[in-house]
């Protein structure tokens, strides 16, 4: 369950008195999610999501909240943080930072088709371009430095072959990060965790309508290609073997590149980026699996899924990025 901080109706009414969002109508805890306490908060005017940040530090939050606000203002479908009467978009509830954001329509899709992939790809490209003039800087806090810090912590729990894969993959990414090509990659605010469960769809299977992207709380400034690779490794694969499904990958990447064409350097670093994205989630899942936080109540995600994906991206031919649309 993902309601770590109880909120009463009276708490919600008091909170709403700091905004101009209508009269309190209802409050309902949301069971999904593992990081924050989330509630659907309905008022006489609209439906919202109230999030209480359980883990993130106050100083990290303006980047996420202001980025979502920046994107929403530019027509990208993301939850729009609501502004208090005093101008702030972050608030405090029971001594913890909190925010009220707009509720997006739809539900997430377990088995996406080419239409879901194309909509997600095109919208991520639009989000990247729309974030180009966002001025707050915060790195991807789950980037290379974190992998370097965390790999030795999880290493003792691994078999010899997994240790070899982790060491060689990390060495590869250290070399990539030092390369001219990496320095030349287009970079900017990136979602960094745009898995299927963070994209909502309404409409029908044949004609889906994108509700929007949620859960920007792993966002950071990184190579935009890394963001693309995170998506491909979750949206366009056979979930059992981890193999890329060419039809889904093509739909996703062509839709993205129609909005923002890939650069030469991105073409060259594509296989390495797919491995970087697999490595990132293999390490975080290993960490959560072997060193769970005391308060974590949910079953940790399976780390071997990303070990398989990383192995696949090391051994198998990787389809090229699309050229010139
Ligand atoms: N803005 C939103 N609009 C609609 N539903 C949302 C919104 N934000 C969160 N949710 C719902 O709450 C669930 C948990 O949110 P999420 O941000 O993934 O939590 P966590 O960060 O704790 O993993 C989502 O799966 C979704 O169903
Ligand atoms: N997408 C990650 C988990 C990130 O946690 P979230 O529930 O906050 O999205 C993974 O699958 O390992």
TrEMBL record:
Keyword field: Amino-acid biosynthesis, ATP-binding, Kinase, Nucleotide-binding, Threonine biosynthesis, Transferase
Pathway it works in: Amino-acid biosynthesis; L-threonine biosynthesis; L-threonine from L-aspartate: step 4/5
InterPro entries noted in UniProt: Aminoglycoside_PTrfase, Homoserine_kinase_II, Kinase-like_dom_sf, Pseudomonas-type_ThrB
Keyword Disulfide bond among record annotations: no
UniProt-listed GO biological process terms: threonine biosynthetic process
Xref: Gene3D superfamilies: 3.90.1200.10, Phosphorylase Kinase, domain 1
EC number(s) stated in the UniProt entry for this protein: 2.7.1.39
Catalytic activity: L-homoserine + ATP = O-phospho-L-homoserine + ADP + H(+)
Domain Aminoglycoside phosphotransferase: 27-262
A matching Pfam family: APH
GO terms for MF: ATP binding; homoserine kinase activity
HAMAP family listed in its UniProt record: Homoser_kinase_2 (MF_00301)
Family: Belongs to the pseudomonas-type ThrB family.
Protein name in UniProt: Homoserine kinase
Organism: Zwartia hollandica
């Amino acid at each position: 369950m993902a309601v770590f901080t109880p909120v009463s109706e009276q708490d919600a009414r008091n909170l709403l008195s700091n905004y101009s969002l209508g009269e309190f109508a209802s409050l309902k805890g949301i069971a999904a999610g593992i990081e924050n306490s989330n509630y659907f908060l309905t008022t006489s005017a609209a439906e919202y999501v109230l999030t209480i940040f359980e883990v993130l530090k106050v100083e990290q939050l303006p980047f996420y909240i202001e980025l979502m606000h920046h994107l929403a203002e530019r027509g990208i479908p993301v939850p729009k943080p609501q502004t208090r009467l005093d101008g702030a978009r972050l608030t405090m509830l029971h001594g913890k930072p909190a925010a009220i954001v707009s509720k997006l329509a739809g539900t997430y899709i377990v088995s996406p088709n080419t239409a879901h992939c194309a909509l997600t790809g095109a919208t991520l490209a639009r989000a990247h371009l729309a974030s180009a003039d966002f001025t707050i800087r915060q790195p991807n806090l789950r980037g290379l430095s974190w992998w370097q810090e965390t790999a030795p912590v999880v290493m003792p729990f691994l078999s010899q072959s997994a240790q070899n894969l982790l060491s060689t993959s990390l060495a590869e990414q250290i070399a990539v990060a030092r390369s001219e090509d990496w320095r030349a990659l287009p970079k900017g605010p990136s979602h960094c965790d745009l898995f299927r469960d963070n994209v909502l769809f309404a409409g029908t299977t044949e004609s889906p309508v994108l509700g929007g992207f949620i859960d920007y709380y792993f966002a950071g400034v990184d190579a935009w290609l890394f963001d693309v690779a995170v998506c491909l490794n979750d949206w366009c694969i056979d979930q059992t073997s981890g193999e890329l499904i060419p039809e889904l990958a093509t739909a996703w990447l062509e839709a993205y590149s129609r909005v923002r064409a890939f650069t030469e350097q991105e073409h060259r670093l594509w296989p390495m980026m797919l491995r970087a994205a697999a490595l990132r989630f293999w390490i975080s899942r290993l960490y959560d699996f072997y060193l769970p936080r005391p308060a974590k109540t949910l079953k940790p995600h399976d780390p071997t899924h990303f070990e398989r994906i990383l192995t696949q991206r090391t051994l198998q031919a990787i389809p090229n990025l699309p050229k010139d649309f």
